[in-house]
Amino acid sequence: MMASADPVTSIPVHRSTLQLLQRVKTAAETWDDFLISLTDDYISPALKAELDRRLGVEPIISGRDAKREFLEMRRSGTRKA
Rounded to two decimals, what is the model's pTM? Predict the structure, then answer.
């Protein structure tokens, strides 16, 4: 099997989340197409451009680290610029 430049991943989700998503995903859609269409529906072009810009200049951190940072800022009443 040939290695892909864009390998497939596995995303752990609760069974109830998967069942909800399966109810709105059509059989003709791949999961890639379905998830991309969700971002197209819910993320504005301006926000997409800003996210792309930030990804080019800011470090990428895990969701767990982002949540921890947010909770620490909320507890301390501070906010990073």
Answer: 0.46
